[in-house]
Amino acid sequence: MLTKEQNSMVLTKYITKTCIVPQLLVANKSDAIKELTHLLFDKKKMKNVGPALDQVVAREVTESTGIGSGIAIPHARVTGTKTLACAVGRIPGGIDFMAVDHKPVHLVFLIFYPPTQQTTYLNFVATAVKVLREPQNMTAIMKAKTAEAMYKILEETSQKFAESPEKVAQKVQTDPAISKMPDAHADLVLLARMQLYQEMLDNARTGKGELRQRIEKIRSLVDPRILRHYDRLMKSQPPALVPVEGDTCQGCFMRLPSKFAQQVRQDVAHIHTCNNCSRFIYVV
Predict the structure, then answer these.
(1) How does residue 254 score in pLDDT terms, banded at 50, 70 and 90?
(2) Interval 132-189: pLDDT, tens
(3) At what angle do helices 118-132 and 183-203 cross, to 10 degrees?
(4) Using CB atoms within 10 A of its CB, is residue 211 exposed (0-12), middle (13-18) or buried (19+)?
(5) Is the distance from CB of 118 to CB of 239 less than 8 angstroms?
(6) Separation of alpha carbons 81 and 216, rounded Å
């Protein structure tokens, strides 16, 4: 039987109380990123601060991770880290993060993750955005007096949003909204979920048999041609499915031709692959 943590994306599985800063005293986004990176290092959540910091800063130069509504999610994929780690900094007065809505950022989630947990990272971010975009949740986090109180809010709210793998697989098959999507969308949902299960399986100590069954269930729903290419990629150069950020493939870190990147954004009826590394790609 899978544990509750394996069944859902609860944010506090990857955030500890000691990595939450209720009063982050910084004047700009560069200082915020540095402070939170060093915090993760000090709490032994990561190694090699210099290269990690260089990567997350380079990512910010490409495109700001200030997603609006007072939230920023700077991140980087770092070789050598064992698992996803996140530090949270609250800045009551707000700082300029060059956010998409041009408003100050009050809450920063800094994330580092290993190459083997690409889908775990995406699931973590998706859950965080769902939680924080609920006004009452954001208000509660901003009003919390301690790191412990912020931690409890993140734990409880993400538990409400998290879905078990079974529910997600069932939704792909039965939800009218998804059933009306182009086939490419449905297959992307399935590939993303299957890749996440594989990451969970690779890191699981218990529940492996159930995870394998769920992977096989999803495999039976994926177009055979897409599945064959997915299998080749997972064997030779995992992960098979990666996002495109700032027109850059996050699998090979090569910049896509602008015209092709725009096509990926607009043509939602087809699944696209990177013209350099052949991985499945989608725009976040």
Answers:
(1) confident
(2) 888 999 999 999 999 999 999 999 998 876 654 445 445 444 444 434 444 556 788 7
(3) 110
(4) buried
(5) yes
(6) 29
Q: The domain spanning residue 242 has which CATH number?
A: 1.10.287.1490
CATH of the domain at 66: 3.40.930.10
**Do you find a cis peptide bond into 238, omega within 30 degrees of 0?**
no
Tokens 């509750």, residue?
Answer: 4
Count CB-CB contacts under 10 A for residue 72.
26
Lookup: tokens for 158: 């993400």
Run of H or E residues at 55: helix 49-62
Number of domains the chain contains: 2
Residue at which a domain ends, from 122, 138, 161: 161
pLDDT digit string, tens, across residues 15-69: 999 999 999 999 999 999 999 999 999 999 988 889 899 989 888 887 788 988 9
112 three-state secondary structure: strand
DSSP 198-211: HHHHHH-SS-HHHH
Euclidean distance between CA atoms 221 and 227, whole angstroms: 9
Residue 282 has φ and ψ, to the nearest 5°, of: -150, 160
Q: Name the band, by pLDDT with cuts 50, 70 and 90, for residue 86.
A: very high
Q: How far apart are CA 160 and CA 151, in angstroms?
A: 15
pLDDT > 90: what percent of the chain?
42
